[in-house]
Each structure stands twice: as structure tokens, then as C-alpha cells.
Amino acid sequence: MTHLESLIAEYLEWQGFLVMKNRKVGRLKHGGWEMELDIIGYSPQSNELVHYEPSIDATTWDKRELRYVKKFEAGRKYILSELFPWLKPAPKLQQFGVFITHPKN
User: What is the pTM of this model?
Assistant: First the structure.
């Protein structure tokens, strides 16, 4: 878990969210998992469901976009079915990519 993931998880917990960190989802028949989701939170008070994918890597935006499209698709596919199946009716899922950038100079 990176420092950025820790900060986001701590903030959500401070706000009263139930938080899951680095959860593998989508068990594959040949072994392993389809994806790992970084931070998932549910607030019973406000009925909010959030999914954060922070990144501190230095890859190009094109490569990031491909990876995060897959991560967010997996989140929409598995969060309610595998991680929070007891949420009825299901709240709308909000998804966030968090990127650290620094301008040149």
C-alpha cells in the first residue's frame, strides 16, 4: 500500500466509511485474480459507495488510461457482486482516479 492509498483510506475512515483496501476480485478458473482494487468505501450514514485508484507512477497518460479503464470496469463489475453483495438497494458507485503530477520547471 502506497502512502497515497493510506491517506485516502484514513480520510474515508475518518469520514465514517467502511473501507476495504487492495482487494482482489474476479477469481480466475486457472488461478489468480482478474484485478486488484485499491480503495473501496461505503458510508452507511450517507449511502455512498466510492472506489479510488491512486497512482504515483510515471507512465504515459496513454498507458495509464488503458490500465484505469480496466480497473474501473472491474470495479463496476465486482464491487457490488463480491465485496458488498448485501447492499440493497445498491447505491450509485462513484469512481476516482488520483494522480500525482508535477509541472516541468
Answer: 0.89
Distance CA 67, CA 12 (A): 24
Q: Hey, how many other C-beta atoms are within 10 angstroms of the C-beta on 5?
A: 19
Q: Which residues contact residue 26 at a Cβ distance below 8 angstroms, ignoring those fewer than 6 apart? A: 33, 34, 35, 74, 77, 78, 82
Give the model confidence (pLDDT) of 3-49 as tens digits.
Answer: 899 999 999 999 999 999 999 999 999 999 999 999 999 999 999 99
CA-wise closest residue to 85 among 4, 20, 11: 20
Residue 66 vs residues 23, 57, 63, 70, 73: alpha-carbon distances, Å: 20, 14, 5, 7, 11
Task: Give residue-wise pLDDT tens across range 75-104.
Answer: 999 999 999 999 988 899 999 999 887 667
List the beta bridge partners of residue 42. Answer: 18, 49
Q: Residue 20 and residue 9: Cα distance in Å, rounded?
A: 8
